[in-house]
TrEMBL record:
Keywords in alphabetical order: Cytochrome c-type biogenesis, Disulfide bond, Redox-active center
PANTHER family reported for this sequence: THIOL:DISULFIDE INTERCHANGE PROTEIN DSBE
Domain Thioredoxin: 32-174
GO biological process, alphabetically ordered: cytochrome complex assembly
UniProt-recorded Gene Ontology molecular function terms: antioxidant activity; disulfide oxidoreductase activity
Organism of derivation: Caballeronia udeis
Gene Ontology CC annotation, any one: outer membrane-bounded periplasmic space
Pfam families, sorted: AhpC-TSA
Major site of localization recorded for this protein: other
Places the protein is found: Cell envelope
UniProt keyword annotation of RNA-binding present: no
Protein name: Redoxin domain-containing protein
Length: 179
């Protein structure tokens, strides 16, 4: 009887750990970047490789950075929500095309609509790594001082825009409006 007790206790303990981990939302990955300065980059733009963009150029405004790729199915799923958000002209959205073929990326935006003010090309993936990107899509909100205030892993939904992103954007836009 005792020889069955130890495996039974082990199995019960393992079952409890697995059950607890199933209740975690995989999109709620912790980020050490929240509250810290957005990592610097100086990347070519997708629409004009001779022009470059950096977070320093965006300082003074609240902005959204969406990390995406044309080969990413989840990015395609969230694209309509990004296009709708861009049409509302509430916050500038910048794209970070992650480890993608620029021609395929341009073709995808031409087909599906381009919600981005500009898209930076991160061909090597180094900027994504600097931002702690686990996989695409991921979305960041950066405040006027260049501090990351929010990160979402996984595709954006209208519900996430309405309950998380837009309320935070409006709050951040209100901060400093009397400066």
């Amino acid at each position: 009887m005792k020889r069955f007790l130890l495996p039974l206790i082990f199995f019960a303990g393992l079952s409890v750990v697995l059950a607890a981990s199933l209740s975690n939302d995989p999109r709620r990955l912790p980020s050490t970047f929240i509250g810290k300065q957005a990592p610097a980059f100086d990347l070519p733009r997708l629409d004009a490789a001779d022009r470059r963009l950096s977070p320093e150029a965006l300082r003074g405004q609240v902005w959204v950075m969406n990390v995406w790729a044309s080969w990413c199915e989840s990015c395609r799923d969230e694209h309509a929500a990004l296009v709708a958000l861009a049409r509302r002209n509430i916050v500038p959205i910048y794209g970070l095309d992650y480890k993608d073929n620029p021609d395929a990326a341009q073709q995808w935006l031409k087909q599906a609509g381009d919600p981005y003010i500009a898209t930076m090309v991160d061909h090597s993936g180094q900027t994504g790594i600097d931002y702690g990107v686990y996989g695409v899509p991921e979305t960041f909100i950066v405040d006027r001082r260049g501090v990351i205030r929010f990160k979402r892993s996984g595709p954006l939904t209208q519900a996430a825009l309405d309950t998380q992103i837009l309320p935070l954007v409006r709050t951040l836009q209100g901060e400093g409006s009397d400066e």
